Fold this protein.
Amino acid sequence: MADTKKKVAPKKEFDPKDLCYSKKSGWSEITEKNLKEIMDFAGGYKEFLTKAKTEREAVKTIYEQAKAKGYKCICEATAKDKKIFINFDNVACVLAEINDTSFKNGWLMVGSHIDTPRLDLKGYPLYEKEDMAYFKTHYYGGIKKYQWVTRPLALHGVVVKEDGTTVDIVIGEDDNDPVFTVNDLLIHLAQEQMEKSARKVIEGENLNILIGSIPYKFKYDKDSVKLAILDMLYKKYGFKEEDFVSAELQVVPAGKARDVGLDRSFVGSHGQDDRICAYCAMQAIFDSGKSNQNKIAMFFDKEEIGSKGNAGANSNILERAVNKLINLYGKGDYNTLINSLADSKFLSSDVNAGIEPEWAGVFEPMNAGKVGWGVCLTKFTGAGGKGNSNEAHAEFVAKCRAAFNKDNARWQTAELGKVDCGGGGTIAMFIAEYGMDVLDVGTAILSMHSPFEVSSKADLYNTYLAYRAFYKYL
Ligand code: MN
Ligand code: MN
C-alpha cells in the first residue's frame, strides 16, 4: 500500500536578494575544461590578428577559413550550394548560410568591421631630408598621434600598377625583415614640446616613416637617398613613384598578437577594434549548427571614418549582398528583397570601452563594460542624450538576452562612458534603416584605438558564445 501522507518540500522563503541582477565574471565558477576552451579559442584568435592586419588581409583570411568549412565564392556557386562567400572589392565580405530558399522570413545577421585605425601612406609619399628618406602618411580613424612614435612599424598593402596588376606588400613582419618607425624629439631638447597639449605634441603632418639613408651608388647628391629607395622598390616590386597614387599602403605596428599577463588572461594587439568581433562572428556562424533560418556574417570596411564609401555600412552594401544571394536561388524580386531585409535581426558587433581603473572618472561603473565580465549588450550608443544612435527595441533586447542565457554566455550591460563625457557610434543606425531590429553586442577592450589594444580572453570567448546563441535561438 502506498503511503498516503504526501511529503511536501518546505516552501523556500522569499528573499528579495533573488530579485537583484548580478553580473558574473567570465572567470568565476568555470572548470579547468572551460579554461582550456577559452585559451584554445584565443590561440586561433591571435593567429587571425597576426594574419589579418588590414581589411584586405582580413577578407583573404576569412575566405581561407570559410573555404575550409565548405563555403563557396558566389562567383562560382550554384543554387545547390548553401554556404556562400561574397567579396566586395577585396575590402569587405559576407559569409552566408542558406537554409530557406523561399526567403519569406528575415535573416539572422551579425555585422562587424574589419578596418582599423592606422597610418596610410599619402599618394605622393616619398621625400628626403638631411640625407634620410621618409614616407609621408595621413592617419586613418581616431588616434592619439603621440602613441605612434618610437615603435617598430610594418608596411602592409597593395600597389596597383597602370596595367592593372597588383603588387602585394608586407614588410616588417618576418624576423629577417626591416621595420620602420616615426621618430620623436629627444627629451633633452623637448622643453617647448612638453608644454604642448597631447593633441599637438605630435602633429599629423609629423607622422612620417623613416625608410632609409644610403645614397644611390654611394654618392650623395640631390635626392640620392630617395633615388636609391625608388631603385630598390623598382627592382624588388617593379613599381615606380607614380604608382603610389594607386596604392593602399598601411603602416601598422609590427609583430604578432601576444598573450598579456602572467596568467595569460589577456590578448594584446593592434586592430582588435573590431577584428575581435569579426573573428567571433565568423566562428559563431561556422559553429551555429543546423537551422531552418538564413544566416549572414557581414564584415564591413570604413567604419572608423564614418561608414561611408561603397564598402561601408552607410551604403547599400548589405542590400546588394542579400540581392546577390536571393538571385542565386531565383528569388530576385524587389518585394522579397526588401521584406526579408525588414524582417531580419541584426547584431551590430563592435567593441565597447572596458573600465580603465586608472581613468575610472570617465566611466559610470554600474553601466560600463567591465573587462572579463562578459560580452557587452548596448541598447543605445551615441552622445549628448543618445544623439545619433539606433536604440534597440526592448522586445528585441529581451529575445537576445534570453538566447545568451540559454547557452550561458556571460553578458553585461554597457554604455560608452558617463553621460555627456564623450560618446561614439557604430554601424547600428545605418543598418536599422532597412527596418530590421538591431542591437549592439560586442567586447569591452582596453586602450581602444591604440597600437596595442588589450582584450580579455574570457570576454572573447563569451562574445563567441553570445553570437552563436543568437544564430541558434533567435
Ligand atoms: Mn569599432
Ligand atoms: Mn573604432
